[in-house]
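Task 17 of the worksheet. Students: predict the tertiary structure of the chain below and write it out as structure tokens. Keep your answer in the requested format; marks are given for formatting as well as content.
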Amino acid sequence: LIRTVKEIKDDTACKREIKMMLIVKPKMQQESETTKKLIKEKVDIKSMAMGITKLRKGSNETVIMGCDTGDEMKKLKETENYNMKEPPQSRSKIKIINIDMEEMNLDDNELVNIIKKQNKIDAVNMCIVKRIIKEKKNQSGRGEMEVGSVIIELDEKMHELMLKKAKLSIGCKKCPIFDHISVKRCFKCWGYYHIAKNCKRDETCHKCAGNHNSIDCTATKKKL
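Model answer:
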């Protein structure tokens, strides 16, 4: 995966835009469409001198509003008749692969310190959130060896700087680095952006796409 500096900047701008959002919930029970309509009628956007980047229906009677700046978010929060809150934010993540087991056997703090020291990285809030171990064929093609990957959480500025490096020195190796994006997937309908617990769709088999449990499927070829 090769990302240009422009792509990284575009991603960063997109993340900033996502952060300027509010979840609007009415104080009295009503449908999201009704809330959306009332916001347009009662919240005087023009006189408040602000720009709205997004206004769409959310789940559980809510409406999602996007703003241009933090000051505009503050103004909207003071609007009566609605409970407005910011959505929870997840920090940026990177994935580093092909790490030797000698380094993978270190604890989180030791491994992070090695990454910082070898690559001259000055980051305070940088932590490992997941480790992955898998087998890989030797360069000679004979036998297999274990290698590791780590997913690291860090702030946006450091995330951008790390991606520009493409590879990091860890131990005696240059390890590739990638942007890590988590996408929710439902294991009931196999759709995205939600989980099975909250799924209201029919069950779908991941082998043949039929409306039955995959365990009961007799298909020999996968369609999903």
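Marker's comment: The beta strands are 21-26, 52-57, 63-67, 82-85, 92-100, 127-137, 144-154, 167-170, 173-179. The mean pLDDT is 76.
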